């Protein structure tokens, strides 16, 4: 089995056998690719500073604001706490 090894003098990637010291130059310098896919939750997409938006409706009795998000099939209300250092988000 060949293991990746760096030739620091020539700055190339080699594949080397640990038993017999056989070496061959790698065709590609990439030895590993880590593809990460992330699907964002609806609530994580809400920007934390949205509570400071003066255009969003507010109530005098509660420390929260709300806004709507229209999808082709439904409308949803999102609430954000406007208390300093809170930023809690929830939906119905």
From TrEMBL:
GO molecular function: DNA-directed RNA polymerase activity
Record flagged with keyword Cell cycle: no
Record-annotated membrane-spanning stretches: none
Domain annotation DNA-directed RNA polymerase II subunit RPB9-like zinc ribbon: ranges: 1-46
GO biological process: maintenance of transcriptional fidelity during transcription elongation by RNA polymerase II; transcription initiation at RNA polymerase II promoter; transcription-coupled nucleotide-excision repair
Domain of life: Eukaryota
Keyword list, A-Z: Nucleus
GO cellular component terms attached to this protein's record: RNA polymerase II, core complex
InterPro entries: Rpa12/Rpb9/Rpc10/TFS, Zn_ribbon_RPB9
Keyword Signal: no
PANTHER family listed in its UniProt record: DNA-DIRECTED RNA POLYMERASE, DNA-DIRECTED RNA POLYMERASE II SUBUNIT RPB9
Protein name according to UniProt: DNA-directed RNA polymerase II subunit RPB9-like zinc ribbon domain-containing protein
UniProt source species: Buteo japonicus
Phylogenetic classification of the source organism: Eukaryota, Metazoa, Chordata, Craniata, Vertebrata
């Amino acid at each position: 089995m060949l293991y990746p090894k760096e030739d620091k003098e020539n700055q190339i990637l080699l594949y080397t056998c640990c038993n017999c010291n056989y070496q061959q130059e790698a065709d590609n310098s990439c030895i590993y690719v880590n593809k990460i896919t992330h699907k964002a939750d609806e609530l994580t997409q809400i920007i934390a500073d949205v509570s400071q938006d003066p255009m969003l409706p507010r109530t005098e009795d509660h420390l929260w604001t709300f806004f709507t998000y229209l999808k082709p099939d439904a409308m949803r209300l999102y609430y954000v706490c406007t208390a300093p250092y809170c930023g809690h988000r929830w939906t119905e």
